[in-house]
Design goal:
It is built from nine helices and five strands. With 281 residues, it is an alpha+beta fold. The protein has a five-stranded mixed sheet, with helices on both faces. A hairpin with a 2-residue loop joins strand 4 (232-235) and strand 5 (238-241). The radius of gyration is 36 Å and the shape is globular.
Length: 281
Amino acid sequence: MGKKRMESGGRRSTPVDKRSAASTSAKRSGSAGKGGASGTDGRKPFFLLLGLIAVVGVAAIAWMASRPGGGSGATAVDPNVTAEAEGYLLGNPDAPVQVIEFADFECPACGQFATVTGPDVRTRLVETGQISYRFYDFPLAMHPNTWDASNAAACANAQGMFWAYHDALFANQHRWSGYATRRPKGVLQELAEQTGLDAGAWEECFDDRRFQANVEANMREGERRGVSQTPTFIIGDRMIPGAISYDRFKAYVDSAAARAPQAPAVRMGDSAAGTEIRPPR
C-alpha cells in the first residue's frame, strides 16, 4: 500500500516538475528576449542620428553646388547684355608665345599657382618678352563667392589695376572665400582700398554688377575650349590642366617657341625692306 502511494506520488510529481521547468525556461526566454529588444531599442536613436546627419550633409552639399554665384545672393542682370571674351592681358600681345590661363579666384590650386609660380612667370617670361599672358575668369559652381571676386576684379580693371587686385585676391583668399564668410563684400572692398582704387567708384561698379556679362563671356570661352578644371593653361597649342611648377611651365613655353613659325628675314634691297614684320600671334 505504501509502495502504491509512493508510485502514485511519484507519478503526480512528474507533471509538476515539467511545468515548473517549462515555466522557468519561458521566464528565461522572455527575459532574454526583453534584453535583446532593449539593446536594439537602445541602438535605434544612434542609427537615426547617423541617418539624419547623412541627409543634412547631402542636402548641404547639393545646396552649395546649385547656389547661384555671389555670396550676396542672386542679382538681377539684363539678359540682353552680351560681351565678347577678352580676358585680362599682361605683357606684349605680340610676344612669340601666347599663354592663356582659365582660373577661379576661389580655387585653392589657382591661389597656389598665383602666389608661388606666378611671380617667376612674370619676371622671367612676361617681362623678358618671351610670352604674353592673358587671364580669363572661369567661376566654378562649387565656390559661392567666386562671382563676387570676379566682379570685384573687373571693377578694378576699370580703373586700370586688374593685376594688382588679382594678386590681392589670391593673397587674401582665406579671408573672403566661402570657407571664411558668406558676405565677402567687406573684405573685397578693403582690398580695393588697400590696392589704391577709388573706393567709391569701385563700390558703385561692384553693386551694379557692371561687368557681369564680361565675366560670363570669359567663362563661355573656357567652355568653348573644353576647359573642365581650374587652373587650366593654354601655352601655344597645348592645353595643360592643373597648377604646375615653373620648370614645367618654362618647358612648355620653350616647346611652343620651338614649334612657332619664324618670321621671314628681310634682306637689304628687297621690296619688303622697311615694312614692319611682326612675329605670328
